[in-house]
Amino acid sequence: MGWGMKNRLARIIKPDTGRGVMLAVDHGYFLGPTERLEVPRKTIQPLLPYADSLMLTRGVLRTSVDANFPVPVVLRVSGGSSIIGKDLSNEKITTSIKEAIRLNVTALALSIFVGAQYEHESLINLAKLVDEGEEHGIPVLAVTAVGKELEKRDARYLSLACRIAAEFGAHLVKTYYCENFEKVVSSCPVPVIIAGGPKLENEIDALQLTYDALQAGAVGVDMGRNIWQSDFPVSMIKAVRAIVHENASVREAHELFSQLKNTEQSTKTATSV
Ligand code: R5P
To answer: Mean pLDDT, to the nearest integer, of 81-89?
Structure first.
């Protein structure tokens, strides 16, 4: 691996802990104004200091993130279908490598849809993106299994999808947590991070998910809704960080969340007066 590629990966997976907290705010590319991400800047800004990296599209990056803030950007460069369209798996590469370089991104992210109608196209998209990334020293994050494919949320399916992503040259794979997750991680020769998925009922459930995934070998999270759809998003991202970077137990992280949320509540009250 070249120096540039290594250096960029080290901005995402921090070398001191071997782990990373990526904040996912790319949902609008197929979901439109997702709940609590209606005004991206408002959602993103308070969380930025606690994100090791930020995953989003160029549109939200340019309009809603301050260029002076030094957060590593993982740019979503695939899309082309919406939640109300015919088939979410029908994606193409939507942002050129030149544009990604102009935006000074740290990594490129693209979805693959193993088992879906457009499986082939999405895998070829990945292959092309990896070729371009290699040329410029920019790592590629492959996102596995969204939309309908999520119905197959088991170790057999997710291992298949993650392994194929790695075989195509992805440098990092994002997938969903499932039972026997260690099988998914051990059969994937590149680092695996987990998405949070739809908002779980309680914060402790998302902390448990994070903890279990790390125990099974994941190197971090690429989490969105379970952070910014919480009533206390800043407290939540800090609690997630405690698990990822400080090896906190679920109980410790939840205690931290409970303490921090009181302060977050007072700040909210003070600013709303
Ligand atoms: C899905 O393809 C998007 O890339 C999201 O970034 C991903 O699902 C992670 O966000 P969440 O934790 O909300 O599932």
So the answer is: 93
Q: Output the residue whose Cα is nearest ligand 1's atom 2.
A: 146
Give the chain's length: 273
Average pLDDT over residues 126-152: 87
Could you tell me the residue range of the domain that residue 70 belongs to?
A: 3-233
114 lies in a domain? yes
Q: Whose CA is nearest to atom 7 of ligand 1?
A: 195
Alpha helix ranges (H) inside the chain: 3-12, 28-31, 40-44, 58-64, 97-102, 119-136, 155-167, 181-186, 203-215, 225-228, 233-246, 250-272
Tell how far the Cα of 31 is from the centroid of ligand 1, in angstroms.
11
Sign of CA dihedral 104, 106, 222, 126: positive
Whether ligand 1 lies within 6 angstroms of the CB of 195 is answered as yes
Query: What CATH code is carried by the domain that includes residue 144?
Result: 3.20.20.70
For a pocket test of ligand 1, which of 143, 172, 221, 236 has the largest count of ligand atoms closer than 8 A to its C-beta? 143
Note whether residue 16 is domain-resident. Answer: yes
pLDDT single digits (tens) 238-267: 999 999 999 999 999 999 999 999 988 888
Portion of the chain with pLDDT greater than 90, in percent: 92
pLDDT for the residue 172: 98
| Domains in the chain, number | 1
Catalytically annotated residues: 174
| 263 within domain boundaries | no
Q: Is residue 267 part of a domain?
A: no
Express each pLDDT in 142-160 by its tens digit.
999 655 656 668 999 999 9
